[in-house]
Amino acid sequence: MANTQIAAARAGTVTDAMERVAEREHRDSEFVRKQIADGQAVIPANRHHDALDPMIIGREFATKVNANIGNSETTSDLETELEKLHTAVHYGADTVMDLGTGSDLDEIRETHLEYSPVPLGTVPLYEAVKRAGSPEDLTPELLLEVIEKQARQGVDYMTIHAGILAEHLPLTDGRKTGIVSRGGSIMASWMETHGEQNPLFQVYDEICEIFAEHDVTFSLGDSLRPGCLADTCDEAQYAELDTLGELTRRAWDHDVQVMVEGPGHVPMNKVAENVERQQSICDGAPFYVLGPLVTDIAPGYDHITSAIGAAMAAQAGAAMLCYVTPKEHLGLPTEEDVRDGLAAYRIAAHAGDVGNGRPGARDWDDALSEARYEFDWREQFALALDPDRAREYHDQTLPEDNYKDARFCSMCGVEFCSMRIDQDARDLESGEMAALETTTDLEASAAAAVNLPPVGTHDSSGDFLELADSIGDDAARGRSSEDSSTQGASDD
After folding, report:
1. Are 140 and 34 found together in one domain?
2. Which positions does UniProt annotate for Zn(2+) binding (predicted)?
3. Same domain as 342, residue 261
4. Are residues 351 and 368 in the same domain?
5. Which residues contribute to the annotated binding site for [4Fe-4S] cluster?
6. Residue 411, in any domain of the structure
């Protein structure tokens, strides 16, 4: 029997990882075990990733958020990559995917795994193409070699584009944007060149054996996801989804955990349909969605267009959201773009949890609302999703310390602040309105850790930056902000 989380769960064993997850989610460890055993949730936890603090992804648990990082040919510095990892974790990423395509991939990946407290995902196809020299020169043997190496290094989950088949390719001919998944386009090019079936599909059972040996979780790639609203829910997308359902069950037969990746561009009226269809076809395996973007008209604001769809997907049952930054479709994100993207997605994830009535999820909202009504500015900042941003915006117009005790802000001023007027009315002895009480105790909340402040619960900034300092030099510190940016969210 494989030594994996799902194998242990099926055998009735509650592992240390399951105990830790139960603690973080405020759930019973036996409930966690059963969810893992049934394939309804995953704990991405490669046994070689010693720095990992285990977490769980599943529709019955708090919604999680992934951030993509990675180098390119022009940004291949180890210090820069560590800064990216720190930025993602600091702003609340629950997992991180390294989509690097530049130099020193092994050294960067191994260093990430040495220091990352969150699960690390990869797309091994990228390294395989880099080693082969072109998509057409890929071989099944090379793909297995790269996958096995990354599994030995400690990668917790891998996107495997095994669901796109040769018979699916003609179904994309009438699309507006063709195949927008990088991995999907690579596999399609290989199949068109060689006239053979997808090599990842051909060696899928061998991949399952590697994953079972090291306890790597599948993230089955949506190679034919729609890249625009016009291509949503078409034959190509749904044909691949049917294959992903079959691949899910085959992985479970090998005692390997599975989550399934979801579509990129979906109008609002089709979001729930996409989630429900995936849950049905894939027998409840966790759904990991990119966005989805609910409109195509807002370049520069796609963290907003996608966060709208992400919140709807989370409420419909999606288990993890892959963030999108304002630079989506336009360029390589900067650190500030990453901050904005993660804020948008933490909001979407939390909104989904509140909408689904997750235990204690709304306590954070209530506590902040009480601080706002009491004009407790310092507490309001401390409870904010991004405390620095909230304080910065307040202090742009009222920076002095005495305004931290003021019963107004610069939006309404003294005379027109509705909450001050309401408080004064309630203080009138002759009035009938009673004083309001603040009763929310976050320390006693039943909410999962990700639904309680602070957001960056894994922030090991000292470790990250100390290591970065030991690696870097003054010249490296002088790079532009673009050089310390992250990969785009849709690259997998």
Report:
1. yes
2. 265, 329
3. yes
4. no
5. 409, 412, 417
6. yes
Q: Summarize the annotated binding site for Zn(2+) as residue ranges.
A: 265, 329
Q: Give the tens place of pLDDT for each residue, 431-456.
A: 889 888 878 999 999 999 999 998 87
Q: Which two tokens stand for residue 1?
A: 């029997």
User: CA 280, CA 355: separation in Å to the nearest integer?
Assistant: 22
Of 43, 94, 42, which is closest to residue 342 (Cα–Cα)? 94
Residues of the chain short of pLDDT 50, as ranges, are 459-461, 472-486, 489
> Per the structure, how many domains does the chain have?
2
The pLDDT assigned to 383 comes to: 96
Do the Cβ atoms of 34 and 6 come closer than 8 Å? no
- Same structural domain for residues 417 and 278? no
Q: Are residues 214 and 71 in the same domain?
A: yes
The C-alpha atoms of residue 263 and residue 274 are separated, in whole angstroms, by: 8
Binding-site residues, please?
Answer: 68, 97, 126, 161, 181-183, 222-225, 261, 265, 288, 329, 409, 412, 417
Instruction: Mark the binding-site residues for substrate, compressed into ranges.
Output: 68, 97, 126, 161, 181-183, 222-225, 261, 288
**What CATH number should be reported for the domain holding residue 54?**
3.20.20.540
Q: Are residues 167 and 92 in the same domain?
A: yes
Radius of gyration of the chain (CA): 23
Note whether residue 489 is domain-resident: no
- Predicted confidence (pLDDT) per residue in 351-402, tens digit: 999 999 999 999 999 999 999 999 999 999 999 999 999 999 999 999 999 9
Q: What is the DSSP string of 345-364?
A: HHHHHHHHHHHTT-TTTTHH
Q: Which residues pair with 259 in a beta bridge?
A: 219
Reply yes or no: is the peptide bond before residue 359 cis, omega within 30 of 0: no
Host domain of residue 264: 5-356
At position 434, the amino acid (one-letter code) is A
Residue at 474 is within a domain: no
Q: How far apart are CA 354 and CA 62, in angstroms?
A: 10
Integer Cα distance of 124 and 143 in angstroms: 8
86 in Cβ contact with 112 (< 8 Å): no
Distance of CA 127 to the CA centre of its chain: 21
404, part of any domain: yes
Q: Which of 356, 376, 407 is the last residue of a domain?
A: 356
